[in-house]
Amino acid sequence: MIYDWLHNITGSAIAAAIIQSLLPLFIFILPFALFAVLLERKVSGHMQDRLGPMRVGYHGILQTIADIIKLIQKEDIVAAENDRRFFDLSPILVFAGSYAAFAAIPFSGAFIGSNIDLGIVYIVAVTGLVVAGILMGGWASNNKYSLLGAMRAAAQIISYEIPTLLIVVTVIMITGTMNLFTISEWQTQYFWNWLILGGPVFGTAKILLIPLMVISFLIIFLSTLAEVNRTPFDIPEAESELVSGYHTEYSGMKFAMFFLAEYANMFAVSAIVATLFFGGFQSPIGYLGNVFGVKWLIPIEQFFWFTAKGLFFVFVQMWLRWTLPRFRVDQLMAFCWKYLIPFAFVILILVGLITVLL
Amino acid sequence: MKTSEEIFNILKEKFGEAIGELVSDKPAESVIVVSPMEIDKICLFLRDEKDLEFNSLMNLSGVDDANGEKVKDENGNEILKGGTLSVYYHLESISLKHKVTLKVSTDRENPEVASVEEIWRTADWHEREAFDMYGIKFLNHHNLIRILMPYDWEAGYPLRKDYQNPEFYKGMKVPY
Amino acid sequence: MALKTEEMVLNMGPQHPSTHGVLRLELVLDGELIENVIPHIGYLHRCFEKHCEAMTYPQVIPYTDRMDYLASMYNEFGYVVAMERLMNIEVPERVQYIRVIMGEFQRIASHLVALGTYGADIGAFTPFLFCFRDREKILNLFEITCGARLLYNYMWIGGVSHDLHADFIRLANEFIKEFRPNLKELNDLLTFNQIFIDRTANVGILPAETAINYGITGPNLRASGVKWDLRRDDPYSIYDKFDFEIPIGKGEKGTTGDCWDRYYMRVREMEESLKIIEQALDQIPEGDVSSAIPKRVKPPVGQIYARVENPRGELGYFIISDGSLNPYRIKVRAPSFVNLEVLGELCKGHLVADVVAILGSIDIVLGEIDR
What we know:
The complex is a heterotrimer of chains A (358), B (176) and C (371).
Chain A: H1 2-10, H2 13-47, H3 63-73, H4 84-101, E1 106-108, E2 111-112, H5 119-126, H6 128-140, H7 144-175, H8 180-186, H9 204-227, H10 239-242, H11 252-277, H12 288-292, H13 297-321, H14 329-357
Antiparallel strand pairs in A: 1-2
Chain B: H1 4-15, E1 19-23, E2 31-34, H2 39-48, E3 56-64, E4 69-72, E5 78-81, E6 84-92, E7 99-107, E8 112-114, H3 123-134, E9 137-139, E10 168-169, E11 172-173
Parallel strand pairs in B: 2-7, 8-9
Antiparallel strand pairs in B: 1-2, 3-6, 4-5, 6-7, 10-11
Chain C: E1 7-12, E2 24-30, E3 33-40, H1 48-53, H2 60-65, H3 72-87, H4 93-122, H5 126-146, E4 155-156, E5 159-160, H6 168-191, H7 194-200, H8 208-213, H9 219-223, H10 230-233, H11 259-283, E6 302-310, E7 313-321, E8 329-333, H12 335-340, H13 343-347, H14 352-362, H15 366-370
Antiparallel strand pairs in C: 1-2, 2-3, 4-5, 6-7, 7-8
Helix pairs in contact in C: 3-4, 4-5, 4-11, 4-14, 5-6, 6-11, 11-14
């Protein structure tokens, strides 16, 4: 584990912990956000029969860096009627919420921020901070559009946490652990051991679980999509109705914080989906490191597979965003309460029966 | 399908005095001149009568006839005194496919016309526009306020022929 | 419900991404439910009618372009039809064909903007760019014809300013060939998307009676099930020579006259426009395009109300001539101006998100409303 290694060289547990906690931010979230913003623009561009950014660097690869420089230079506008304290606190809270989630995500066999046993429950809980931040921002902006957006966001995120949690509980019943690292390890290498294909234990249960797990995956993917406010569930920031929802009043780096949080969140939920159903950092086809007997290659390969799976789901999110229109607020709620939650309950009961009886 | 003459005769029979003349020497369009205070009753009749059925008001436009005498006001600007303002109503029946044009003329100093807003809802904004541009007051209109010009425009009615641009509007220079 | 919340007044616009210009809507809300919508217009008022009184008759044409800037060709079309009736000018056959071709291309271009922005209003951004891609090709056709892409000053009283480019017919046919599959793609992507249908069907229902009473015209009226198209019912130019259908709303996905019907009406009208263009390109005769243009435009004393079927509805010009070189009075009956009136009626009881859907489905252009 990287923590032990860091502990060895620094000789201090606190220094090791700090370095370890900053690692995901600097080696992962920031580069990922840079890359994801560009990817989003390129993906949307090519889907829409155009090229996307082309001017800054080769095929526009430096575009996001230019954007960041622009955002840093921008004036931080605070209107007179804003509630200054909460207005400033909100982006920090939102970012903290999504950043904290990365602590329990196992990036590879050798690196997990904090290998806590409550892993998945911790993530669901800590992302709740985002709701508080959004509500705070919407209210402190003193803008009706922001307020409407924040209200919608709070209602939506809280509602969609229910199906997410139900599916998480289903998964916990099968794996018997809440530790994401253990869940990843449990779905050992090779794709037929993934939970979406019933997990590594062969038998009748595996066959019965496959259809249930596919539906579970769809439910959790949709509800996490709603939790990160992506199309078709982007009504909190519905551009054509609410200008841009809860972050209408924000400018400069505060806006960039929201933006960064959004992209960090996109990856976080993709990573959770990948970890629960698609083997986490496990390779689908075995490791080169095992073939050649090079042990240190394995964690790097795992990191690669984990990122690849995460990015694939991020890509699917973008794909949906540039294809689908947006739900209306009542339809969104109806979709959650009338379809996702009942289905999730049925699956919970069925999986419970399967795990108990077989 | 009825011609303007037939409609004129029907109206003349029904309303008598309120119906003026049928002006048809002008090219392309003949106009029935009616009384401004009776226009709402006439229009209601035109809409509801079985074989007329004018269910659509295509257009309603104010016109400044500019037939008063020209006088100079204290600033030396030429303004019009007396004469009339007119309102044209272009009616059409979508079911029977015939059209008719009505015209009312009203006194320039105190222009008042009965509103047809209750008969065709579309007249609402048209009448507000005529009020905005000519200052024609439509009696019984539920919300006769300016529509295109600012709500607090005090310099008069822009489409009148003797309209003068004000120098300033709320401290902002107008002609620039 | 026992719980009654306080009313909130939300100002939508004049700077708002989906009011399609500088329209201000005063929304009276109960939570997110609409209790009343009060449109405030006039932010783009440029005194078109006052301007005209100081211009000669041909000088008015460039101003008409600037009213409905998405359908400039058709605004000119309406004006020249009115002037030619007033002056009793016989227009050469070739000019009539050119005008119909341009008018129908303009209708397609205008509907493409309407559909694309409607998709964007509902939250689907990709159809917007697909529509603009196709509109771009139409603008290219206009550009080779008259040199301008948006404000053409192409149709003149008695003729058109330039004859068709030598390549025009070939390019126009190529466009039609490319455009049909693109239209199908648009349908697959947006029109029959279940989310889109959920958002638009049964929203903002406009019954035929109300529509007529409010003076609604064009695709909005036809979507309510009234078969009324001036190209057929009050023919001008040479529209009586072509074979095309007038689609009407049938409420396939919801109720007749809902937002989806109004949207789909435009898709089907584009197909009909393509048919008209194909026939016109086939039949267009040779001839001179400027022979009937009068040297001096001085109509007789009189008045005329002439109207054409603009992409948005009935575009009427009421022109009074006092026999001089300048018009005495020009009043424009702008279809968007009249169509917008019904918004308050349609929005009552819907959600904030529906206001955007309804406003988009009415398809207004503020340049024309404020004139």
